[in-house]
Amino acid sequence: MFIYKNNYLYLKLFFIQLLINILFYYFKSINKKDYNYSFISVDSKTININYDNNSFVIVKRKKCPNCGLFSDYIVFLGCINKYLNKGNIPIIDLKSYKNIFNGYNVNISSENPWEIFFNQPFGYSLNNVIIKGKRIKYEECKSLTQPDSSIYSNKILKDFWYNLARIYIPIKTKILLESELIRKNLFKKSKNVLGILMRGTDYISKKPKGHPIPPTTELVIKDIKEMNNKNKYNCFFLSTEDDLIRKKLIGQLGYKLKYYIYNKTINYNYKKKQLLSFNDNIKGNIQYMKVYLLNIIILSKCIDIISARTSGAIGILLLNNGFRNNKIYNLGYYK
Q1: CA torsion angle for 138, 142, 148, 151 (degrees, to 10)?
Q2: pTM, rounded to two decimals
Q3: DSSP code of residue 275
Q4: Is 2 helix (H, G, I), strand (E, B) or coil?
Q5: 130: helix, coil or strand?
Q6: Which of 16, 18, 89 is nearest to 52 (CA)?
Q7: What H or E segment, with its residue span, contains residue 265?
Q8: Does residue 75 contact residue 139 with C-beta atoms inside 8 Å?
Q9: Which of 47, 67, 46 is nearest to 55 (CA)?
């Protein structure tokens, strides 16, 4: 009996210490002023459509007209977190100011590009809120906490943003279904696929200040071969905007390299060291970004991932709750 009591006391002390360690790690990793976990218990499907009493915040991102889809995705996710914690219903506006999705031409009567790709939180649409909402504020997304490179190594942060994105930025069902059809066409029944995300063009020649330095194609090829020696992939899926990178990987991986591209709207000139740019073809720009989203979804479904540090890489992690292996390069930032 005496031995049993001592064992019981030991177990109690063990679990108390375990709890203390968990709490210490939690408070060390999360700043409670920046992150609020209360939203996770909210079921968006149970919210009643109410234009009279709900407080809406229409959020925009005016100062980044050339930013891409997942750059916006990350910033708007930070906005959603901020305004939910204030008791507001955030509505994403991607049409009433100049951006690549509207061809830099503001047309208030046009469709909101955000709603082509994603559902708004709680089922409200931008146009309906503008017409029917009684309590509306307009805010610009800036100076807020948002997903960043820390999620590559911090699982608590990664899980936090993953859950937030899953609940409040669900991808349109028809786009998810389209991505599944593309996957089946590319990979057949293969599941042992290595996803590869590479950034070239202006990241290589222009070296934009403050942006992550991408790995060289030669380094990525070497690492792909090392990963393949261990895992014997059935095929590889590449997403890149750079045709030169694509051709180099085809030369190394042959028919096993799969990709899904749409490159009719982007303009780039290596000799002039331009930034990757779009044009006034609204339909073409939206189609290009849709294909980019499809690429990110497909990458998020691969069993392993190897990637440069980009907004798209963060997007992949926010769409996948855990790869078997992932290698995301950390080569510093351009100064």
Answers
A1: -50
A2: 0.83
A3: P
A4: helix
A5: helix
A6: 89
A7: none
A8: no
A9: 47
* One-letter amino acid for residue 103 of the chain: G
Q: Which residues pair with 328 in a beta bridge?
A: 307
Q: How far apart are the first and last CA of the chain?
A: 69
Handedness of CA 86, 91, 96, 102 (dihedral sign): positive
Strand partners, 258: 237
Q: Residue 8: count other Cβ atoms within 10 Å of its Cβ.
A: 10
Q: What is the DSSP string of 203-223?
A: HHHT--TTSBPPPPHHHHHHH
| Residue 267: half-sphere exposure toward Cβ, Cα within 13 Å | 10
Q: Which of 9-18, 19-28, 48-57, 69-78 is predicted with the least confidence, judged by mean pLDDT?
A: 19-28
138-170 per-position pLDDT tens digit: 999 887 889 988 899 899 999 999 999 999 999
What is Dmax (Cα atoms) for the chain? 83
Check whether 263 has a pLDDT greater than 70: no
Distance CA 87, CA 126 (A): 18
Question: Which of 296, 258, 271 has the alpha carbon at shortest distance from 179?
Answer: 296
In which residue are the tokens 């009643």 written? 48
- Please list, in sequence order, all residues whose beta carbon lies within 8 angstroms of the beta carbon of residue 67, skipping any fewer than 6 positions away: 61, 75, 99, 100
CA distance 326 to 12: 38
Pairing between β-strand 235-240 and β-strand 257-259 as defined by DSSP bridges? parallel
Q: Phi/psi of residue 112, each to 5°?
A: -75, 110
φ, ψ for residue 55, nearest 5 deg: -100, 115
User: What is the number of other CB atoms lying within 10 angstroms of the CB of residue 187?
Assistant: 18
155: left (phi over 0), alpha (psi -120 to 50) or beta: alpha
Residue owning tokens 């799969």 = 258
Count, residues in the chain: 335
CA 108 to CA 95: how far, in whole Å? 7
Q: Which two tokens stand for residue 42?
A: 């909210």
Q: Tell which residue, 331, 330, 327, has the closest CA to residue 307.
A: 327
Q: Is 196 helix (H, G, I), strand (E, B) or coil?
A: strand
